[in-house]
C-alpha cells in the first residue's frame, strides 16, 4: 500500500469511529428519554447512513433498509447496539431508519 492509501484508510477508519460514537451517543439519549426521538431521529439516521456509506461504496436506500431490518432477526446486531447504547437502542434505530426510508 502507498502512504497515501494508508492515510486514506486511516482517515476512513477515524471517520467511522467518530460517526459511530455520535450514533451511539444519540441512541443513548433516545433510550434514556424516548421523547427525544423526534429531535434526534434525523441525526441518528444520517449517522447510520454515513457509517454505511463509508464502508459500502455501493450504498442504496434499499440496501440500508435491508440491513437495518435484518438487525431485528440477528441477535448479534441487537446485542451490538443495545450493549453500546442501552436496551431498546436497536429497536429505535430500526424504527428511525424505516421512517426515513420506507415509502
Write up this protein.
It is a single chain. This protein is mainly alpha-helical. The chain has one domain (3-101). Helices cover 83% and strands 0% of the residues. It is built from five helices and no strands. The chain has helices at residues 3-32, 37-55, 61-73, 75-85, 89-101. Helix 1 (3-32) packs antiparallel against helix 2 (37-55) and helix 3 (61-73) runs antiparallel to helix 5 (89-101). The longest helix has 30 residues, at 3-32. The protein is globular and about 45 Å long. It starts with a helix and ends with a helix.
Helix tally equals 5
**What is the multimeric organization of the chains shown?**
single chain
Percent in strands: under 5%
Element-by-element helix/strand order: HHHHH
> How many structural domains in the coordinates?
1
Number of strands: 0
Helix share bin: over 70%
Strand count, sense and barrel status of the largest sheet are: none
Low-confidence stretches are none
- Name the average pLDDT: 91
Global outline = globular
| Computed Rg | 14 Å
How would you sum up this structure in a few lines?
This protein has 103 residues and is mainly α. It is 83% helix and 0% strand. It is globular, with a radius of gyration of 14 Å.
What labels describe this entry?
103 residues; mainly alpha; globular
Question: How do the strands and helices of this protein lay out in sequence?
Answer:
Layout: H1 3-32, H2 37-55, H3 61-73, H4 75-85, H5 89-101
Helix pairs in contact: 1-2, 2-5, 3-4, 3-5
Amino acid at each position: 500500500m502507498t502512504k497515501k492509501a494508508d492515510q486514506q484508510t486511516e482517515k476512513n477508519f477515524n471517520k467511522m469511529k467518530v460517526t459511530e460514537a455520535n450514533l451511539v451517543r444519540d441512541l443513548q439519549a433516545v433510550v434514556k428519554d424516548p421523547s427525544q426521538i423526534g429531535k434526534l431521529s434525523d441525526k441518528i439516521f444520517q449517522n447510520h447512513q454515513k457509517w454505511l456509506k463509508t464502508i459500502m461504496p455501493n450504498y442504496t436506500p434499499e440496501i440500508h433498509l435491508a440491513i437495518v431490518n435484518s438487525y431485528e432477526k440477528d441477535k448479534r446486531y441487537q446485542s451490538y447496539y443495545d450493549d453500546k447504547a442501552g436496551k431498546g437502542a436497536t429497536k429505535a434505530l430500526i424504527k428511525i431508519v424505516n421512517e426515513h426510508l420506507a415509502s
